[in-house]
Design brief:
Layout lengths: L2 H8 L13 E4 L3 E5 L3 E6 L12 H15 L7 E10 L2 E4 L5 E10 L7 H6 L5 H18 L3 H4 L5 H16 L9 H17 L1 H9 L3 E3 L9 E2 L5 E2 L7 H4 E3 H14 L3 H15 L5 H24 L7 H21 L3 E6 L6 H12 L2 E4 H8 L19 H20 L4 E4 L5 H14 L2 E8 L2 H14 L11 H7 L9 E5 L4 H14 L2
Parallel strand pairs: 11-13, 11-14, 12-13, 14-15
Antiparallel strand pairs: 1-2, 2-3, 3-6, 4-5, 4-6, 7-10, 8-9
Helix pairs in contact: 4-11, 6-7, 6-12, 7-20, 10-11, 10-12, 12-13, 13-14, 13-20, 14-20, 15-16, 16-17
Amino acid sequence: MDENVVHQLLLNPDIYPEKTGSISFCETHISHLYFTDSHVYKIKKPLNLGFLDFTTLEKRLFFCQEEIRLNRRFCPDTYLDVIPIRAMGKNLHFGGSVGDIVEYAVRMKRLPKERMLDILLEHNDPSLPQEMEHLALFLAAAHQDAPPASEVAPSLCDWTSIRTNWDENFCQSEPFADRTIPVQGLQACREKIESILREKRDLFVRREKEDFVREVHGDLHTEHICLTRPIRVYDCIEFNQRFRISDILSDLAFLLMDLEFRGRRDLARQLLDTYLIHSGPQEGQDILLPFYKIYRAWVRGKVESMAMNQHEPEESAFQTARDLACRYFNLAMGYLCSPFLLITCGLMGTGKSVVSRSLSQATGAILIQSDALRKRLMGLSPETRAEVPFETGIYSPEISAAVYDELIACASEELQKGNSVIVDASFARQKHRQDMEKLAKIHGVDFWLAHVECTKKLQQKRLAQREYEKKDVSDGRLTILADQTARFEDIASTPCTIKVDTALEVEYNTGLILSRMLTGV
């Protein structure tokens, strides 16, 4: 029976074993999921993606059975059974012995959506800090109980798997160069990863010998965690043993990466700190955790790129997958960046703040914004409008000088803590740019200047929209644009200058900036 016909029939609530209302549906890049009121039925797509092979009915049955077996380690009461889907004429039914089997489904109890970690994050639930304590304890215990690789796959060499995984990653990502990751970024990441693998080989091998390499979850991110009591972690990797056998820090790194991807680096730090209290300090953790976070972000970027390819460019799903892939690849590149101080430079309305926020998200750099800082120094709320003539009031030269002095002080304080810093300001004067470059040298970090530009037409459109909405902390507007343009000092072309055309998509631009920061040229 045709795959599309099967899908349409599975949307009929009358064919399911339990009484239910309407059927809801979602899909991943490798599965179709059908939701009744009380259960979930998961069907594997007949795909061969290299790292998995679901192309025959027999293979899909085997991996359905594996999914049940492996996931019962983390949520034993959720995964129920594998149930055949049979065809009788033009209809389908579940189970029984009559009719031809057209597919197999993993049947699971439906978990409460409101307790899913990704949903709690979306709603910024106040219980999340406390939940991180519970989750860290759960994961530390799960990792301790997980069987060592030496028992379940004695022939598997973790070092070889790591090399193979990365070779596979780069090979499978090449078709997406300049679509979801810049060519320069792909090449720079390959070189840096290969350097780490060469220099830290003994550490990887030693961790395996000491049984820190275990059969773990393999796909540990927020969408697979339900913070009920007990906690339930589901949807582990069943389709490739090599992907679920890894260092326990690699398993943990996936979740840390996902929290950071979602803008919750605070929760990631808390989860890690509590995990280490229960598991004990891990040898090489300062090296291994960033390395494994890069790997996990890269895999997600690759997977979303593959999902993008399953849709036509005009479909919304195509753009959604593309944006996600770019963001994951940007995060991977951000983990690889050396400590830095980056300043934006450009006229009002060119998009400096948008670029700064995206780059801060990708790198974890502290973002210091001059517009907000200026109003704080003046005792004003960010929402307060101060639409005064050019270089008067809170924008007078004297106050602007004080603002730039404070920007230097704030940046210096963060650099002293070991944080990378992004300073979002116009930096219209060469002196202020030079002061920041000197500060970077004092702290021994890379210095970059992002020269942000766009067409005059786009710039004017943005300023008009900002003035109409009156929601932006910036008071930049069309009536003073000419004055700022006339007094903007030329930007000397230096090796640390990165030109940014904000007519391009923000995530693509972020990838270009990160590629430049990684290559240094």
